[in-house]
């Protein structure tokens, strides 16, 4: 085993990053939205023996260790923000002994850090309070990939679902989920956001902001709806994360290659400029730096679609693109479904249209460098909501939205004091059925949920198909159904992430529909009586309570 692999497999948790811009009164330079000082006085670097010291020519001075490649100092307006617990800011959990070099090219300073299969770059641009970062991971010798910016304790308010106080709160799961005295739960996992939902994360006091704007995630895994940790805060310090590949609740194979830029940025309290977000960031200045794996605008292509036919106006639509080397996505316009995705690496991709998070159309599309692939209107034919149903719980959109506790579960533990009871049965036709049905069912917690419904004489005389749609499953948990006296076979477990998910703020796995053929003999012949559907979770694995085998639900219906 290589030394760097042995050093890093202790940490499997990754994070998310951000880019920012100094909120000064200076004019916007070069149309980029990056604020520069008039003179950039003092821009340059020096060597203090242990670190390369970079003066951005503005209010930020940062240091990079010459031996490890860690950022060892982030001093903004003379105040130190970096580090806690004897640890610094770095890729993974710290690379250890590395080869670190520096050079200046005009108004850019570039630091290169090489350690085994990972190469890390840092860049400073004259007059900007930003650190630009790239990470190139060549193979799987590191178990996971993140960059974490470690922030000194007490610099920013310690609040939010991803903040806790270990002197008062108690650990309730795996060393990383905490319960406060008021019954609320907190964890670094509880960001409440999907990748598509954010451009930056960070902290602000109102007068100082420290932000991490994410990269385009083209070499990350999990797609636009992936949920992961983005930041954390406690009495011992705080952290901001750029998740490059995270093993938890992962739905895709890992991709390798260059990721970035993602940017650490200081402002005078405000949010980073939108011109710094990955979709709009001008990276022409990067082209001549010699960063391994960098592909500039000229080497990339675009896909543009006229629109989508068959959309449900109640839901947003996203068009995703993925192959073994890269992933991208674009939001479809409301009404028309028109979409455009730029900056794509050349290659052949699987194009997937998502109704919210449910795949309803797929096809192949080819991207060429410097070209635009134009697509005619795409017809959506894979929406299960179009099927006629006797009754339906929830709607088919790839999420548990609308079910009991669904919204809370993206930023809290199932045992959170704010959660409604996970038990409780449902009667079709009573009103508010979906809101009464639990978003998740676990083998040890609320197994055996009942759904009551009546059928007409004609309906009871026929066989019907029961569909149960799930978004994820923990420990191979899957539903087996009983209808009155009829018991279904145990279905085969579909492929799902193998790590925690339902307790770490994520219901996102591989959407799957279980189909049960219920014979006419199963129904009550007396139409005044309720038929009773029982849902049990079956699995031969799993722990106890909320770590027992479980699943999250998308929709459930009985077809006509």
UniProtKB/TrEMBL annotation:
Its EC number(s): 4.2.2.23
Keyword Glycosyltransferase: no
Keywords: Cell wall biogenesis/degradation, Disulfide bond, Lyase, Secreted, Signal
Catalytic reaction annotation: Endotype eliminative cleavage of L-alpha-rhamnopyranosyl-(1->4)-alpha-D-galactopyranosyluronic acid bonds of rhamnogalacturonan I domains in ramified hairy regions of pectin leaving L-rhamnopyranose at the reducing end and 4-deoxy-4,5-unsaturated D-galactopyranosyluronic acid at the non-reducing end
CDD domains tied to this protein: RGL4_C (cd10317), RGL4_M (cd10316), RGL4_N (cd10320)
Family annotation (InterPro entries): Carb-bd-like_fold, Gal_mutarotase_sf_dom, Galactose-bd-like_sf, GH-type_carb-bd, RG-lyase_II, RG-lyase_III, Rhamnogalacturonase_B, RhgB_N
Residue span(s) of domain Rhamnogalacturonase B N-terminal: 43-293
Residue span, Rhamnogalacturonan lyase domain: 301-375, 390-558
UniProt GO molecular function: lyase activity
Gene3D superfamilies referenced in this protein's UniProt entry, alphabetically: 2.70.98.10, Carboxypeptidase-like, regulatory domain, Galactose-binding domain-like
Coiled coil location: none
Lyase recorded as keyword: yes
Record localization: Secreted
Family: Belongs to the polysaccharide lyase 4 family.
Protein name, entry field: rhamnogalacturonan endolyase
Organism from which the protein derives: Streptomyces cylindrosporus
Species classification: Bacteria, Bacillati, Actinomycetota, Actinomycetes, Kitasatosporales
